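Standup notes, protein team

Yesterday: finished cleaning the Gordonia hankookensis set.
Today: NAD(P)/FAD-dependent oxidoreductase structure.
Blockers: none.

Input for NAD(P)/FAD-dependent oxidoreductase:
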Amino acid sequence: MTSAVVVGSGPNGLTAGVVLARAGCRVHVIEAADAIGGGARSAELLRPGVVHDLCSAFHPIGAGSPALRSLGLDRHGLRWRWPEIDCAHPLDEGPAALLHRSVADTADGLGEDRATWRDMIGGIAADFDELADDLLGPLVAMPRHPIKLAEFGHRALYPATGVARVFRTAQARALFGGVAAHAFTRLDRPGSAAPGLVLLAAGHRHGWPVAQGGSGAIVTALASALIDAGGTITTGQEVTSIDEVDSADVVLLDVMPAAAAGILADRLSGRRSRRYLAHRHGPAAFKVDYLVDGDIGWTDPDCGRAGTVHLGGTFDEIVAAENDVVAGRMPARPFTLVGQQWLADPTRATGSLRPLWAYAHVPHGFTGDATPAVTAQIERFAPGFRAQIVDSISTSPAQLQQQNANHVGGDIGGGRNDLTHLIARPRLSPNPYDTGVPGVYLCSSATPPGGGVHGMCGRNAAEAALRYLNR
């Protein structure tokens, strides 16, 4: 029986394991940490019964991922739950911009930008399921739908600042900018519109849901599917050399490129080793988990109905803040994401106590304390917020890396998301998962399509491994 070892048990590693196991391989997943899941874990951080997501929280790509959808994870207990409003973006003046699953409902709230939003975003959303495999794979591979992908690429190659110019209202520009900022990159560079357009299209098609019980439920379902297919998992075992697992027919590495270079050592070609070691990481996240008493008193009440709230002010403020963090400067008002997961999943809260999830974009490897800045951004749009805080815990970029070695310097996205790294992730190839070492593949978020809980990096790498086995 063909054997496979997967090093790393994040969503990509586990997805790869399930794909290989269902194809008839004997799969063993090895995880260095004491618990599986990588960035998709949940815990009762501050009070029993109040569940916080440790990193990833909302899953517009996950719910629409061809990889996760094909695995039938509902049979293993995964349940998606949607808030009334997917995302809100409040402003200091005027009403908040609201992102609904419905393109029409979103557009209707954007005044004179109604038709522009429908035309620009609606068409991509309508085609999302058909384009998903192309959008969530290597950009230089042969596309399944070249004409439609070219239509998307025409917009995606623009800077986000260029796309934002087509909107006339502050609400539409801010809504687009807040979603585009998920990429942790400069928004005035070519290609920076692409991540935002993909997220918006996925969200309009599948919403921005949470996993019932916490993001860890996604990993639990993947592990169940793997075991059901005959796979096994070992935790608390670090693989430092390919020699430890070279008895397997194929090996998949759910690690960052520099770590892969260390594991493969002199088996990796000099050129490939240099490329992996040159892989550049992006800005970091600084996370704050709050335990709050009662619902948040947002100035705009509609924000109290939204699962995700983007706190960045106007589009121009977001652009300036993202430019700062890419340049290594801590902005006074960092772009901040807030999660109110209990709105979609009441099991996360107990009584009047709610788990408020938040993180700010900060420079790579930031060593300061961004907690006051995160709190101030929330207080800016929800006066009185400080009085609601019962307890809190902050997680620095260094601590994020301690929790998950793939979060190098606090980069939770697997590397920079500038145009170079979108196209050549981690190298320019229609099969960037292939390490060049026979039977060894990279399946982490350093490969296409990048960060997020969607399993596509793992599925794509597993399919490359299966082609190798069936050659």
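Follow-up from PR in the comments: The chain has a mean pLDDT of 95.
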